[in-house]
Amino acid sequence: MGATGATGAQGPQGNTGATGATGAQGPQGNTGATGAQGPQGNTGATGATGATGAQGPQGNTGATGATGATGATGAQGPQGNTGATGATGAQGPQGNTGATGATGAQGPQGNTGATGAQGPQGNTGATGATGATGAQGPQGDTGATGATGAQGPQGNTGATGATGAQGPQGITGARGPRGLTGPAGPSGPAGANGANGSNGTNGINCWDTNANGVNDIAEDTNGDGNYDTLDCQGDPASDDQESDEVDLSTDLTIGGTLTENVQEALVALNNKPFENIYTTDGSLTGNRRMDMAGFNLQFDTDTNADTNGTINLRRTNNGNSIGIAFRNSGNNYDAAITMPGNVSNGLEFRTLNNQPNIQNVGIAMELDDIGQMALPEYGETPVKFEGTNSAVKALGVEADGKVVELNTAKSSRIFYPPSIEVDVSANTTYTIDLYAQYIAQYATPTVGSAGAPPAIPTYGATELYYYVTYADPTVFNTGSMVITNDGKLTYTVVNQPSDYNTLINVVFVVK
């Protein structure tokens, strides 16, 4: 234990504590030396005389000192110093205690003496053992709520969480009204002309009866020295056609053109334009189907199979995908609606444009065979809001499957990290990793409810914004606080809290 330092200045009077129980009588201490005589106080009123106790035996008389000459009696001087006490005679037996006299009136309080000069600082004594913790005091009144801090900037959108388990199939909602057709977009630039196709194989002339590609003498059937269609008419006298089968003199009508005979009818038929779906409008008189490489395009009016009057695309092999694609003027694909093979009977909506083949047109949305929707592009990498990151609405799904707005887009991105200890033991600068403290508690919680996963989902360090919304200005230098992008807070302590308790508020915001 070090030497005790000089007593400091007197503090203000504390409230009087409750009187403790009287301790056991300690042994009689040695009589200390008599201090110097203080000034004479005012004489108190004389109390009533108590009864005289029985006379004890006479003690031995001490030696009498020499008597000094008696001087004239002057005015009463100040009390002189007490002379040395003569030797005490032998103690006589204890007499009976007389009755206690009445207590005299309290004399006035004497003046307090001046405080002595401050002594040098003594060495710090060894720390004593920690006392037992006192009983918990009553709960203090709750302090007034501080003012709400200003709204922080909108954070970046956090990474999309893992896809949850498949929920039950919701009830199909009523079909909404058909929207108005939007205005036609501007025409795209004309694509480059494709390469010319290779020349086809030459055909066989009608007079080339042996198909050798050579004008043989026997093939000039009319003997006019020319090889042309006149050599293809045949000889009515020698061909196998009977005269009653074809009357060359009979007039025929081909495509509204009156001809004089069969020969002219053949020429008219050759000159008549061939009509098809590319050149002429028309009507189908029954169900029609076009086949190409195992796929069908059906025009079907069978009301037993289709009551909506649709045009059917049918695949003959369910392992193949099928759909409708949209190509631009450059012959690349901009969008498609496809039904994949060997997966489900759902639909894929592809919109990542200007691709050389359908497989490269990315899937923007999927509708599976039980009516659930997926947005694959939002699950690959974190997606930021467009523009100023100021979204104020989120989307939710009601029990009947309807999509509704939720006014929680802002508040759902703000949360408080777990409570941590902040060192303020010395007036110096400290650094504390807010993100590491958050991960330490969220990733390894002490206990969870029945069936809860072992860790709480967490964000990456750079997926969050970090804020100190309040710090006690009597303890921290709030003007010098700095937080890095990954959540490391540097702060300077200027004073220790008087009651070992202070406040600092930290808020995390999901980007």
- Tell me the strand order in the biggest sheet: 6-7-8-9-10
In N-to-C order, the SSE pattern is: EEHEEEEEEEEHEEEEHEEEE
> What's the overall geometry?
rod-shaped
Helix content: under 10%
Radius of gyration: 58 Å
Sheet of most strands: 5 strands, antiparallel
Instruction: Report the sheet-strand fraction.
Output: 15-25%
Mean pLDDT: 73
Number of strands: 18
**Number of H- or I-type helical stretches:** 3
Structural class: mainly beta
- Low-confidence stretches are 380-388
Distance between the first and last residues' Cα: 58 Å
Overview of the structural elements:
This protein is mainly β. It contains three helices and 18 strands. Strands 6-7-8-9-10 form a five-stranded antiparallel beta sheet, with no helix packed on it. A hairpin with a 5-residue loop joins strand 11 and strand 12 (403-406). The protein is rod-shaped, with a radius of gyration of 58 Å. Mean pLDDT is 73; it is low at 380-388.
